[in-house]
Amino acid sequence: MTPLTTRCGICVLRAQHCTPSKISATPISICSTCPRNSGRSDFSTRSISWRRVNNIRPASSCCARFAVAVSSSSRGFTSRATVRANAGEAPKLTGPYFGQEPPGLEAEIFAPDLVSKVGRYEYAVSFAPGGERLLVSAQTAENTVHVLHSRVIDGFWSLPEPLNLTNGALRDEMEAFFARDGKTVYFAPYNEGLDVRIWQAEIAGDEFVNPVPLTGPIAEAPAFFPTSASSGAIYYTNIAERKPYRARRDDTGSWQTEALDIEFGLHTFVAPDESFVLVDARTEDSLGKLDIYVAFATADGGWTTPVNLGDEVNSEFSESCPSLSDDGKYLFFSRYNEPDDVSQIYWVDSAVIENARQK
Question: What whole-number distance in Å separates Cα of residue 104 and Cα of residue 119?
Fold first, then answer.
């Protein structure tokens, strides 16, 4: 296989700034210059998931998962809704967003003990049109990655349960997002190496059926984080090029692609009307490690330089995997502030995006 000139498997997903090295695309390796490697090359690679070896681990990312032993001590929050229940009894939550009190311009943890659990690695939130279904990715105790699904049944939110979107065809499944028409879900399943491609499944009542990989140029390179616009276009991350891409379906059903003319960014979430995109990156003005930025569409079809969303969203920790609620009122993202850089889901009023436009 022809080597790629790229960064290591950790950095390609993390926007860290290693010296590039020549590595094969599959299986991916880590470059000797990675600051987390310190000259070692003994990571056990598991798709884009890494197990800890000799106490060396990758830095935090919503796509660099690893086995961790996490303290079960409290984060120090107070839940705004009663989510604990007796053993074997599901919590009774009603109303939008699991009955949580909406946040203001200061980010808060989302649905603690139910969606956001201490020690569980969580990212990539998607609410269905109408707001009564939720998808969120999580690493389980078995060190596998699943898409968890919750929905409103008889007026109450169900407990998030893992789906099997590929019916066992691929081992791990992540980053599932509802299409804007509510009829399809796009997601990124994988097995080994960089074997990550975008799939779709149809929504039929309570079921997700007919899972198939997308075809055409979109399938030619490793890709993940597929979010969609009202036009039907998919915005996603081309892993090999470490760039945001857009794909549109042609008359044959094949997905034709183009790179977005954006200066930087990964994990691209597009607004329904394609007026802006949210990305994460580590740049000179980052407040901590990885921060969330917004780039606005310009009249000539381009994009503004991404603007940091500021300390209303970003912190000294990493923030990643941004998404919006279906009604556009709230921004969801992952914050890596637990021991061993485990991430939890946070949310904040989406007015932070318009505020960034004024910067």
Answer: 26
Q: Are strands 330-335 and 344-349 parallel, antiparallel or unpaired?
A: antiparallel
- How far apart, in Å, are the Cα atoms of 88 and each of 26, 91, 98, 119, 159? 44, 10, 19, 21, 11
d(CA 342, CA 72) in angstroms, rounded, equals 12
| Residue 330, both tokens | 């709230």
Chain-centroid distance of CA 358 in Å reads 27
* Structure confidence at residue 34 (pLDDT): 37
- Residue 99 backbone phi and psi in degrees, to 5: 70, 15
C-beta separation of 322 from 279 below 8 A: yes
Please report the DSSP string for 157-182 in residue order: EPPPEE--TTTTSSSEEEEEEE-TTS
Yes or no: say if 212 and 254 are a contact pair by the CB < 8 Å rule: no
Residue pLDDT, tens place only, 241-278: 999 999 999 999 899 999 999 999 999 999 999 999 99
Q: Beta strands 133-139 and 307-308: pairing type?
A: unpaired
208, 221, 213, 171: which is closest to 191 by C-alpha?
A: 171
- CATH domain 96-357 topology: Neuraminidase (2.120.10)
What is the residue extent of each domain of the chain? Answer: 96-357
- For residues 97 and 87, what is the distance between their CA atoms, to the nearest angstrom? 23
